[in-house]
Amino acid sequence: MQDCFLAYRGSGVALSALDEELLSRWARTGAPLEVIALGIRRAAEKGAWHAKPGEPALRSLRACRRQVESEIRKHQWRSAGATGDGRPARRPPSAAKVRRQMQSALQRLASERPELTEQINQLASLIAHASLEAEDFRERIDLAEAHLLRALAFPERIEVLKKARAQTNGSIEQASSRARRLSRRFHRGVVLRNSLGLPSFW
Q1: Is 178 helix (H, G, I), strand (E, B) or coil?
Q2: Is-contact 185 142, C-beta < 8 A?
Q3: Among 133, 134, 132, CA closest to 101
Q4: Do residues 129 and 16 lie in contact, with contact meaning Cβ atoms separated by under 8 Å?
Q5: Reported pTM
Q6: How far is it, in rounded angstroms, from Cα 98 to Cα 81?
Q7: In 10 A of CB 36, how many CB atoms?
Q8: Structural contact between residues 44 and 8, judged by C-beta atoms closer than 8 angstroms
Q9: Best CA proximity match to 19, nearest among 56, 57, 70, 62
Q10: Is 12 helix (H, G, I), strand (E, B) or coil?
Q11: Helix, strand or coil for residue 94?
Q12: For 120-178, what is each residue's pLDDT tens digit?
């Protein structure tokens, strides 16, 4: 889980004792690591949108608490319908509503950037037909976003890659190869979506 946090943060930092305690609390809920990782990613996406240039999307694992616990509640709703403390879990937003929001953003982009229509249609089709909860959904979105990036004009594409590299620093190189790949892919996707005015598809 530390690798996951470092990847989305974009720089190496040891987890504090408070962060370790928070991780233990999340683990005791019984939620899979993938659910906790998704919450961390959502927090990083939100943080990256508001971060100043050169500022990390996440400063600590505690900054992810709201999003992680929201994902845990969604998981508990799907699997058992209870929060674990006896209270009913709050129903998560419907997949249909999320799809409508995503499709609306893509339609707007297609009208603004007709040269990207083919790649935008690829993303729209994926969102329309794939299960948002499928394990491979995030990998397929990453691949579709890579195609969208390649479709940009060369100067725009280089600018996206340059900004994505600036979000990480040398200390991430000390992380595992998986964390480095995840970090590069994550920051590239964030910068791409921000530059096109698209929401996260996560």
Answers
A1: helix
A2: yes
A3: 132
A4: no
A5: 0.68
A6: 20
A7: 25
A8: yes
A9: 62
A10: coil
A11: coil
A12: 999 999 888 877 767 677 788 888 899 999 999 999 999 999 988 877 665 556 667 77
